[in-house]
């Protein structure tokens, strides 16, 4: 029995309708931007395995850091104790985060990072006997699958089964080009009610919505509106963080800093699950009291796992090298060259680029569903041609590891171009 056949016997995969899904490729090896399945077939990982692996599979620098840490201290509880890797990571993060971020809360993944931010927002006002029980979010957002994160998301088929069980979230239009005024007016109306604890957003690029992009200028205005009305701002940088947009964080394009940031995915270079929520000193101070009940009673068993912290430190060190920064610029330039070629194709509706993120929308007669026929046809075509890409409806996006070679990226472009001929 093959690994793929055994997998089908035992596993329940994420975002998968198993009634209509066949055998899945069993990956047995990864190196750089490449993956190999049990049959020896090679794939180019053109989305860095869900955006987590910017420095390539089996990266030796991160592997060595993990091994060294495992032989010293693999894990110790963070409740009542601390550890050196967590402190070193915090010090490093303070060097690269916006200057108003002063406190770090560790958790396990992007959803929990968002959950921490939402809970802290709500409890901050509860601690002050102020009734602010609602959250503002953008339409078509995706912030994760735990309940607070899910409530803040706007892609309905992810959340519709749970609508009666979610906290109250009001969604406003995404401030894409031409919609800025409408979005700003909607936000201004909300923040003036004194009912909202926070505004959460994916800065500059909504990943799961199909890499929908908007400008730093309008986001600056939105954050300023929130600050003027005592509504906290939460930048969900789970996808955009650590170089994806061309800067370390998407927030680095702004003049105004958010109150909270959510980090995960590329944090550990795709090695160990870990997440971070960062806070201003003001928010942290809102939980300081002689009354123990005003503490933030939230935690995870593997909070500040030393091995994960060591991996994150190695990952950030790699990101800061001249080589990696040049790689990010190189990929961006290659995307621009490909855009000039592909945007005139008769089947291409629009193209978008931000940093190493490239997206194109395919012209369709009807609105394509997220996991619709076109998407599934494209996905299968890419897999058959040895490319890992996961289209979103009629949007094909590329978000490769920074170490992908020009030749590998050119193959990805060529396969995307061929895919336009089959739709």
TrEMBL record:
Pyridoxal 5'-phosphate binds at residues 110-111, 236, 300-301. Keywords: Aminotransferase, Biotin biosynthesis, Cytoplasm, Pyridoxal phosphate, S-adenosyl-L-methionine, Transferase. Homodimer. It comes from Flavobacterium luteum. GO terms for molecular function: 2 iron, 2 sulfur cluster binding; adenosylmethionine-8-amino-7-oxononanoate transaminase activity; dethiobiotin synthase activity; pyridoxal phosphate binding. It catalyses: (8S)-8-amino-7-oxononanoate + S-adenosyl-L-methionine = S-adenosyl-4-methylsulfanyl-2-oxobutanoate + (7R,8S)-7,8-diammoniononanoate. It comes from the Bacteria. The keyword Transferase applies. InterPro entries: Aminotrans_3, BioA, PyrdxlP-dep_Trfase, PyrdxlP-dep_Trfase_major, PyrdxlP-dep_Trfase_small. GO terms for biological process: biotin biosynthetic process. SUPFAM superfamilies: PLP-dependent transferases (SSF53383). The modification N6-(pyridoxal phosphate)lysine is found at residue 265. Its EC number is 2.6.1.62. This is Adenosylmethionine-8-amino-7-oxononanoate aminotransferase. Substrate binds at residues 50, 265, 299, 390.
């Amino acid at each position: 029995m093959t690994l793929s056949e055994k997998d089908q016997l035992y596993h329940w995969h994420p975002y998968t309708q198993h009634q209509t899904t066949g055998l899945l490729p069993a990956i047995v090896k990864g190196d750089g931007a490449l993956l190999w399945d049990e049959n020896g077939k090679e794939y180019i990982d053109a989305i860095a395995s869900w955006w987590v692996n910017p420095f390539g599979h089996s990266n030796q620098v991160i592997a060595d850091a993990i091994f060294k840490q495992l032989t010293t201290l693999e894990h110790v509880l963070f409740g009542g104790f601390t550890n050196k890797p967590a402190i070193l990571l915090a010090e490093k993060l303070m060097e690269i985060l916006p200057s108003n971020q002063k406190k770090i809360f560790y958790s396990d993944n992007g959803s929990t990072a968002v959950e921490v931010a939402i809970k802290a927002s709500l409890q901050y006002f509860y601690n002050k006997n102020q009734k602010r029980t609602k959250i503002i979010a953008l339409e078509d957002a995706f912030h994760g699958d735990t309940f607070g994160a899910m409530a803040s998301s706007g892609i309905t088929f992810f959340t519709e089964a749970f609508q009666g069980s979610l906290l109250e979230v009001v969604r406003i239009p995404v401030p894409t080009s031409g919609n800025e005024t409408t979005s700003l007016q909607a936000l201004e109306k909300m923040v003036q009610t004194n009912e909202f604890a926070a505004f959460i957003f994916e800065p500059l690029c909504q990943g799961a919505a199909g890499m929908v992009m908007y400008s730093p200028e309008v986001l600056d205005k939105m954050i300023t509106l929130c600050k003027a009305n005592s509504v906290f701002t939460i930048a969900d940088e789970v996808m955009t963080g650590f170089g994806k947009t061309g800067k370390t964080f998407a927030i680095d394009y702004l003049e105004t800093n958010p109150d909270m940031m959510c980090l995960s995915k590329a944090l550990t270079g795709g090695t160990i699950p870990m997440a971070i929520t960062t806070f201003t000193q003001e928010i942290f101070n809102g939980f300081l009291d002689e009354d123990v009940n005003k503490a933030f009673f939230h935690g995870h068993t593997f909070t500040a796992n030393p091995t994960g912290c060591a991996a994150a430190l190695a990952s950030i060190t790699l990101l800061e090298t001249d080589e990696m920064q040049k790689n990010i610029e190189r990929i961006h330039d290659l995307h621009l060259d490909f855009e000039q070629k592909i945007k005139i194709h008769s089947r291409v509706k629009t193209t978008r680029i931000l940093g190493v993120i490239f997206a194109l929308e395919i012209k369709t007669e009807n609105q394509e569903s997220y996991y619709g026929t076109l998407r599934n046809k494209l996905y299968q075509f890419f897999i058959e041609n040895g490319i890992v890409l996961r289209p979103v409806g009629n949007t094909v996006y590329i978000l490769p590891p920074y170490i992908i070679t020009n030749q590998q990226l050119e193959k990805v472009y060529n396969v995307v171009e061929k895919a336009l001929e089959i739709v």
